[in-house]
Amino acid sequence: MLVIDVQNDYFPGGAWPLEGAEEATAEIVGAVRQAYKEGWMVVGIQDVAAPDAPFLRPGSPGMDILSAVAGAFSSQVRGMRVHVLAKRCAAPTRELSALALSGLQTRCRVK
Question: Does residue 107 sit in the same domain as residue 66?
Fold first, then answer.
C-alpha cells in the first residue's frame, strides 16, 4: 500500500488545505492498520518542495507527515530515504529522463 503526501500543509492551518482532508485521515489510518494486520507492505511517500515554494518547504512543519498517519506507520517505514538508480530509469526520451532525474536530485539521492 502506498500512502502518498498526507502532510500537514494539506490540512486546516497548513499552507494549502484540501477539502475533505480531515475526514480522509480516519480512513487512511484504518486502512494502514488493516494492511499491517494482513501482512501488506506499507510505504509512506512524502513530498518535499524547493525552499522557496509556497508549501511543503524543506524543514517546515507543513512538510511533515500528519502525526495521526505517521503514528500508524511501522517503525520500519519512518526515516526511510529514497535512492534512485539513474541507469534503471526509463522515460520516452533521454532528454525527458535527464529532466526528471535532475528534478529528483533536489529531493533524493540519484546515482
Answer: no
